């Protein structure tokens, strides 16, 4: 179970990274334009009335258009989305019981909202490299330390997932197929991993210093917003607002 | 305990994002520059390690089920409150973006629920206080502190989830029922997470105590001790602000305040005329929170018209998809 989860997480990250490296019109757009449109879209989806199924269906135009106009495989993104989206609205499952008249309608709207919001976030990372997302966050005045930490962590997560997967497989082979750690192994196994992590961090820090690290990464900054970026950044919010005006 | 975007209203999500922005700035400023340069690799790698560790299943004896490591409390114990908070915020950002776990609008809520309560409340007020008790052995103090800290942090987090969800008004769950549902479940979860955290911390104390933030600092004067009173005030103010914004505002009087009353009486005719103004009509349509009403009560008046609208919406979607396909072919050329 644990190993499956770890492998799934690894596949997830590698697939998203591969998608963001593809070359098409959306990956070429400025990361800031894509981030701002995504945030505004999520805002519009969550702000739509809880019984207005029409609004959320029409708001689906954004991901539907992007999926249709780019080579991003919809199935890949949907497979990453369905389970987390279902869990995220689990509290809304009581709506039909507590509101017999319109509970199903509000639950259906909630489910679509969860899918749309998740889809928007995944579309952003599937079309924007992680370094560009960090740049866009920096432009939004996210602390520089946070963006550096975000980048560092993103790179090292893959390494640790790999390492933990190997450790859990070894544990499983020595304990008759058990993948859940017994209490006697809780401290020693995770503790040992943590000690190795600290050693790794020290080596990494030395390597970073040797390469001239002074508190943050130096990355090439994307060019300024061009006409296409500005059009993208203007057009979608207009569409979202128009949908809201038409349906409410 | 991650909250998704769908269950959050823009007002609640936006308020929590603003609070998170303030907390991130405070956390960054609280770390001195040398510490940042020397410890950023450690912070990033430890954060990545905790992220990956969250996927490990820990068998709970006698139940047949398994638990998980929390993350927030362990990060605070390893990195200290400020760096722990920043690491937790980074983990939550990666989860929201790459794993559809949580959401961008709900990011602030998740940072507050899972990061603030563990690193800035449970760690200094429970864990560190317990470490100062003189009669107990260090190992006992570490275990009791980790369990108690995790338990309290999860209870506060679950309480915050309840408040944020109820204020958002996306579910029909009444506050009392929801609270009774959330708190006992998170008491059990907190206990399991606390014991796992305590096991790891206790092992590290025996093998490599310098990895624990408090042990690392033992014997060295705290360079930030002079700022403690200011920090305490900031934290108290922040909590009070959050509480006021999240809870008390819900009880705001529905009657007009003095200023509104005066305007209403003095310029009734003017306001009546403004009511028909096209800009006001537009604003009414776009209003996310009309008159501070968190709960949306726009029940569809007639299902018939709504159904027709839905069919129309789906047709529009198909049209958009067609346009997209056409655009793809054109752009590929």
Explain the overall architecture.
The complex is a heterodimer of chains A (248) and B (333). With 248 residues, chain A is an all-alpha fold. Chain A folds into two domains: 132 residues, no CATH class; 67 residues, no CATH class. Chain A is built from twelve helices and no strands. The model of chain A has no long low-confidence stretch (mean pLDDT 87). With 333 residues, chain B is an all-alpha fold. Chain B has two domains: 247 residues, Arp2/3 complex 21 kDa subunit ARPC3 (Orthogonal Bundle), CATH 1.10.1760.20; 35 residues, no CATH class. A two-stranded antiparallel sheet of chain B has the order 1-2. About 18% of the residues of chain B have low confidence. Chains A and B meet through helix 1, helix 3, helix 4, helix 5 and helix 6 of A and helix 1, helix 2, strand 1, helix 4 and helix 7 of B.
List keywords for this structure.
heterodimer, A: 248 residues, mainly alpha, 12 helices, B: 333 residues, Arp2/3 complex 21 kDa subunit ARPC3, 2 domains, two-stranded antiparallel ribbon, 13 helices, 71% helix
- Number of helical elements of chain A: 12
Give, in spatial order, the strands making up the sheet with the most strands of chain B. Answer: 1-2
The helix fraction of chain B, in percent, is over 70%
- Kindly give the count of domains of chain B: 2
Order of helices and strands of chain A: HHHHHHHHHHHH
Strand content of chain A: under 5%
Q: How many independent structural domains of chain A?
A: 2
Number of strands of chain B: 2
Q: Pair with the most extensive interface?
A: A-B, 114 and 101 residues
At CATH level 2, the architecture of the largest domain in chain B is Orthogonal Bundle
Q: Unreliable segments of chain B (pLDDT under 50, ≥5 consecutive)?
A: 219-230, 243-274, 289-298, 301-305
Let me know the number of strands of chain A.
0
Task: Give the assembly state of these chains.
Answer: heterodimer
Tell me, rounded to a whole number, the average pLDDT of chain B.
76
Please report which band the strand proportion of chain B falls in: under 5%, 5-15%, 15-25%, 25-35%, 35-45% or over 45%: under 5%
Number of helices of chain B: 13
* Rg from alpha-carbon coordinates of chain A: 22 Å
SSE string of chain B, helices as H and strands as E: HHEEHHHHHHHHHHH
Q: Rg of chain B from C-alpha positions?
A: 25 Å
């Amino acid at each position: 179970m644990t190993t499956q989860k770890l492998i799934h997480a690894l596949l997830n990250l590698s697939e998203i990274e591969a998608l963001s490296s593809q070359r098409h019109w959306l990956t070429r757009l400025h990361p800031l334009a894509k981030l701002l449109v995504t945030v505004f879209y999520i805002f519009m989806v969550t702000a739509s009335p809880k019984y207005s199924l029409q609004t959320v269906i029409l708001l689906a135009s954004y991901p539907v258009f992007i999926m249709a106009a780019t080579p991003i495989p919809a199935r890949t993104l949907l497979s990453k989305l369905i389970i987390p989206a279902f869990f995220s609205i689990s509290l809304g499952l009581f709506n039909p019981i507590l509101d017999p008249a319109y509970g199903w309608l509000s639950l259906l709207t909630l489910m679509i909202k969860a899918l749309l919001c998740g889809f928007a976030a995944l579309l952003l990372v599937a079309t924007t490299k992680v370094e560009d997302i960090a740049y866009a966050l920096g432009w939004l005045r996210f602390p520089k330390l946070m963006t550096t930490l975000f980048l560092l962590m993103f790179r090292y997560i893959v390494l640790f997932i790999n390492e933990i997967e190997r450790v859990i497989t070894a544990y499983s082979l020595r304990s008759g197929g058990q993948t859940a750690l017994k209490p006697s192994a809780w401290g020693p196994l995770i503790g040992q991993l943590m000690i190795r992590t600290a050693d790794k961090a020290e080596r990494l820090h030395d390597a970073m210093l040797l390469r001239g690290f002074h508190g943050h990464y130096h990355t090439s900054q994307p060019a300024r917003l061009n006409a296409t970026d500005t059009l993208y950044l203007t057009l979608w919010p207009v569409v979202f607002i128009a949908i809201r005006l038409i349906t409410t | 305990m991650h909250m998704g975007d769908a269950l959050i209203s823009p007002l609640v999500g936006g308020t929590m994002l603003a609070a998170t922005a303030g907390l991130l700035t405070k956390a960054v400023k609280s770390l001195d520059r040398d510490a940042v340069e020397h410890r950023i690799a450690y912070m990033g790698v430890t954060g990545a390690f905790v992220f990956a560790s969250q996927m490990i299943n820990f068998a709970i004896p006698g139940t047949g089920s398994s638990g998980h490591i929390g993350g927030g409390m362990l990060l605070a114990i390893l990195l200290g409150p400020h760096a722990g908070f920043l690491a937790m915020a980074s983990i939550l950002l990666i989860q929201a973006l790459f794993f559809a776990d949580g959401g961008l609008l709900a990011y602030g809520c998740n940072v507050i629920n899972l990061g603030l309560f563990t690193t800035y409340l449970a760690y200094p007020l429970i864990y560190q206080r317990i470490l100062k008790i003189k009669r107990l052995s260090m190992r006992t103090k570490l275990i009791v502190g980790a369990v108690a800290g995790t338990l309290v942090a999860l209870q506060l987090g679950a309480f915050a989830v309840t408040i944020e969800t109820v204020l958002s008004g996306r579910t029909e769950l009444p506050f009392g029922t929801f609270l009774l549902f959330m708190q006992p479940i998170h008491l059990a979860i907190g206990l399991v997470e606390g014991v796992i955290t305590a096991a790891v911390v206790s092992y590290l104390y025996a093998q490599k105590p310098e990895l624990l933030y408090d042990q690392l600092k033992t014997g060295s004067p705290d360079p930030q001790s002079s700022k403690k009173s200011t920090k305490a005030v900031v934290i108290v103010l922040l909590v009070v602000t959050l509480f006021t914004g999240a809870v008390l505002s819900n009880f705001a009087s529905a009657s007009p305040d003095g200023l509104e009353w005066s305007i209403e009486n003095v310029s009734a005719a003017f306001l009546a005329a403004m009511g028909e103004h096209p800009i006001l009509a537009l604003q009414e349509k776009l209003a996310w929170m009309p008159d501070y009403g968190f709960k949306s009560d726009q029940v569809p008046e007639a299902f018939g018209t709504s159904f027709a609208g839905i069919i129309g919406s789906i047709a529009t979607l198909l049209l958009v998809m067609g346009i997209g396909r056409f655009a793809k072919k054109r752009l590929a050329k």
